[in-house]
Amino acid sequence: xxxxxxxxxxxxxxxxxxxxxxxxxxxxxxxxxxxxxxxxxxxxxxxxxxxxxxxxxxxxxxxxxxxxxxxxxxxxxxxxxxxxxxxxxxxxxxxxxxxxxxxxxxxxxxxxxxxxxxxxxxxxxxxxxxxxxxxxxxxxxxxxxxxxxxxxxxxxxxxxxxxxxxxxxxxxxxxxxxxxxxxxxxxxxxxxxxxxxxxxxxxxxxxxxxxxxxxxxxxxxxxxxxxxxxxxxxxxxxxxxxxxxxxxxxxxxxxxxx
Length: 258
Fold this sequence. Notes:
With 258 residues, this protein is an alpha/beta fold. It has one domain (22-257). 67% of the residues lie in helices and 7% in strands. It has helices at 2-23, 34-47, 58-64, 78-81, 83-102, 109-120, 132-142, 145-164, 183-196, 198-222, 233-257; strands at 24-29, 51-54, 125-127, 227-232. Strands 1-4-2-3 form a four-stranded parallel sheet, sandwiched between helices. Helix 2 packs parallel to helix 6 and helix 5 (83-102) packs parallel to helix 8 (145-164). The two termini are 27 Å apart. Residues 165-169 have low confidence and may be disordered.
């Protein structure tokens, strides 16, 4: 009896998985990698989505397409989002721009590509990320003075190598910044990130995954249209797992109402 129940549950899970994959294609990207642009275009051509979703909120979307000269946020903004959120905005933006300039690209180019594809093909564009101000406020709430100093030191002293790829802590295969890291490398980076900075991981990865999963699962349950979602590669797998859970729950609840 237990064996039959287990088999039924596995069959149901496989069916849900199959249905999601028919309706949703997630493109895992690196925000400065030129390969990400190629992957977005290839996914669009092969999957032919009827909705495009991107890992952006309204503020970041408007900033991405702003054509004027970019300025650092005013000091007054720090009182709105907190000290660490403000410093993270300055240093994180600087790192992305610096690395992007090194390989001849700009941060968020794959999101821009996805948004342009939506506009050119008259396809709805869904902004599925959490409001950036909420994310930055959450970062500030979690960070004490010593934690802030530690992260700033790591970011400045060693950049990405110190922050993510210390050989003595984790064995990572070298990868080209122009390419999206493979799944094995991404898992190792996330594992190190979570163990070294659990509060940062929660605010930057886990909390946002929950928000994006809610948006995407709601869209899947409410429309028959095919959806292409473009998100950072570090979000892809856990985001998909959360969507499966939410779809399963939604189907059960829907069945209970009948």
